[in-house]
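Table S2 (text version). Query chain:
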Amino acid sequence: MRIDLIAALLLCAASLTIAAQEPAHSVQKNLLNHPAPPLHRTALDHRTIDISTLKGRVVLLNFWASWCGPCIKEMPLFDQWPARYGDSNLSIIGISIDDSSTDALTAATKMHIHYPIAMGDAKLGTSYGGILGVPITYLIDRHGIIRARFEGETDPALIEARIQSLLKP
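Corresponding structure-token output:
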């Protein structure tokens, strides 16, 4: 009987490992192909973030935390992309779910992040379909429509390929 229990537990663990390795980049149906919810915040560096002013640009909106390993890994890559694709074509916005703005600012400074970062809250998380874990990255097209959601650790090449497709005229 113990062997059956151990085998069942190993089977469950294996299925969870496989599911975790698959990139979760499906968009929640309630947000897919709909306008991005309003986002108006003051960034940690006191810049104003207003997503409605970014029409005409592709926007990468990244929910992250200073304690999140995959977040810390991908953010420096995101920081390079506006220079690669043109600051007027691609905007990056970070939303920290840290409890403390000091933790978020310390992490962003340590990583030399140049894009604006603001603090998130439950209301903002709910408006974006629920932010239960990080990283979560949304891609919003030039018309303000959500076109992709990448959840969890995702191959940056997948995100970048989607950005490239959204940047095409």
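Notes on Table S2: Confidence is low (pLDDT under 50) at residues 1-29. Strands lie at 40-42, 48-50, 58-64, 90-96, 117-119, 136-140, 146-151.
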